[in-house]
């Protein structure tokens, strides 16, 4: 667990970080399936990578959760695929925390291809905070909750057409 002076630094980091985190990725050839586009499983991996990177950017990398002895596990993913991603596409996974409850959190995502102004997918993940030793739900510590700004309504319209325009 971070020390008190570290907690103050983490809160300062959170106030300086954008509420909506952007994770940049280039679609690799080995992510392409038999249909010629990125496999559905890759989207889940991109979401996971974006969530982990966002947490680390807020001062909570995987090592900090290990030291704490507790952290986040996925309860469920929901993805709506709108357009395929192709090899070498430069994509951005936009992610934000939509809700924080006592032991759970909802994180949302938009996967976009900015060069084509294309919305590839929208998604969300329900997370539970658990004690690693017992596997039981545990209250989200205040020092974690304080570093993530909740964005209930993102500043972009809800688009399901696959176009950002």
Radius of gyration: 17 Å
Number of helices: 4
Oligomeric assembly: single chain
Query: What is the top-level CATH class?
Result: Alpha Beta
CATH fold description: Thiol Ester Dehydrase, Chain A
How would you classify the helix and strand content by structural class?
alpha+beta
How many distinct domains? 1
The main pleated sheet reads as: 5 strands, antiparallel
Q: DSSP strand (E) fraction?
A: 25-35%
Shape: globular
Question: What's the number of extended β-strand segments?
Answer: 5
SSE diagram, text form:
Elements: H1 4-16, E1 21-26, H2 40-57, H3 62-68, E2 70-81, E3 90-100, E4 104-113, E5 118-131, H4 142-145
Structure commentary:
With 165 residues, this protein is of the alpha+beta class. It has a single domain (4-145), classed as Roll (Thiol Ester Dehydrase, Chain A). Helices cover 25% and strands 32% of the residues. The chain is built from four helices and five strands. It has helices spanning 4-16, 40-57, 62-68, 142-145, and strands at residues 21-26, 70-81, 90-100, 104-113, 118-131. A five-stranded antiparallel β-sheet has the order 1-3-4-5-2. Strand 4 (104-113) and strand 5 form a beta hairpin. It starts with a helix and ends in a 20-residue tail after the last helix.
């Amino acid at each position: 667990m971070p020390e008190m002076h570290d907690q103050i630094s983490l809160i300062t980091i959170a106030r300086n970080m954008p509420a909506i985190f952007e994770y940049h990725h280039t679609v690799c050839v080995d992510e392409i399936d038999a249909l010629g586009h990125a496999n559905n499983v890759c989207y889940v991996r991109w979401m996971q990578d974006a969530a982990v990177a966002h947490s680390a950017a807020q001062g909570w990398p995987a090592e900090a959760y290990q030291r704490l002895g507790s952290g986040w596990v996925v309860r469920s993913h929901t993805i709506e695929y709108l357009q395929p991603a192709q090899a070498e596409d430069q994509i951005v996974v936009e992610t934000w925390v939509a809700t924080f409850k006592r032991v759970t959190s909802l994180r949302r995502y938009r996967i976009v291809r900015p060069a084509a102004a294309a919305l590839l997918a929208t998604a969300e993940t329900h997370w539970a905070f658990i004690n690693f030793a017992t596997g039981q739900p545990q209250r989200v510590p205040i020092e974690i909750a304080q570093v993530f700004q909740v964005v209930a309504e993102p500043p972009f319209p809800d688009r399901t057409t696959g176009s950002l325009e």
